[in-house]
ISL3 family transposase (Halosquirtibacter laminarini), 404 residues
Amino acid sequence: MNTSSIYHCLGLQDQQLLSTSYVGDTIQLKVKTKKDKLRCSRCKRMHVICCGVVERSFKGPMIGKKKCVIIIDVQRLYCKKCKIVRQEHLRFAKEQKSYIRSLEKMVLLLSSHMTIQSISRLLDLNWNIVKDIIKSHLKSKYHSPGLKGVKHIAIDEFAVRKGHVYMTCVYDLDKGVVLHVGKGKGSESLVPFWKRIKINKVQIESVAIDMSAAYILSVKTNAPKATMVFDHFHIIKKLNETISKIRRDLYNKEKDKVIKKSLKGSRWLLLKNPENLNLQKGEDSRLEKVLETNTTLFYAYYLKEELRELWNQDNIRDASKLLKQWIEEANETEIPQLKKMVELLTKHKTGILNWYKCNISTGPLEGINNKIKTLKRQAYGYRDLDFFMLKIKAMHQDIYAKCG
């Protein structure tokens, strides 16, 4: 290996190679900074006087199967202008780091395909050093995503771990970028995001959210002119939970063993889209039998399918009529669980129908939530929540979507 090789392979532009030695499975490269490259680390002037050396060693990227160590006598320089002695500035490594920049680049390259633990073992680096390299890179690029041109956003929470520990995610529906990740699922988790919105003078036009009271209040307070759209996925989810509760209550109260047997295990049949029923397994006939034996479930199932049509209307006027009709029919059934659903839909009627004004939903954000689950599973969890939040913000980049 020669001076040209350390320049092209390791990025040592200002140094020359003095010697190469092999110790076990390690290549030791002794280098020295060229005289014409010695400058004051503060004013960058060449009028300096050498005042001794300090030996330092830096880890470099592997060369084949061999580890690489760069050993350099760092010059102590007296600057005639600054009138002070300082160590020379080394361009190939960051200050107070024991590795060179090319090794850092290799870590970032491998992070798109490997876990931190695997990179640590391959490059013989401390696990914390590998994590800090990746974290510093993510922080410099994704700590504060740009808000220019942000108009349509989605807000939703996701579970971090068991024990009702949640985080809130804000997603740009136009660019497909995570704009903010906050701890908790209350309005306080969105405070830093709204501060940035006000500082950058961004005008949010529409927001897709679930029917969380905390999120509704937060949006009304900080973006009063924005159109709130209550996501239809969460509305159908609420109705499905209502039907599950009706079935469970009926099963617990039913005394007829035949009817009780038909109700058992029928939950997914009731919640499934009729088009997805497996005809070969006789799911259609089994569902029909369940509905025939119980009038309450029949009405609940019919109303569930009717509500699905709310988002298939030609315009907001037709949708409003359908919703009004659905509320009247649900009230007529006298089913307590459905009456609670009626109260919910009546309360949030405007936000539900706003879907016809702004055709947005939290669907893309639900996809991000699934990726977050994969991210956690591959990394076996995260101890550093700040690092976890940075990884989420970088998920739209394929290189950081897979590994923990």
Remarks:
- Residues 232-253 form the longest helix (22 residues).
